Amino acid sequence: MGDTKLRNKSRGIFTQLIRANVESYNALKLIELRGQLD
Q: What does pTM read for this prediction?
């Protein structure tokens, strides 16, 4: 039971990392697009 809780916790951290990477990637893309518009 404790193993499952630990696994869920690490999965949550992993999901947060992916989400952070996606958000920063999207931000970079927006900056690139904005630069092309100028």
A: 0.61
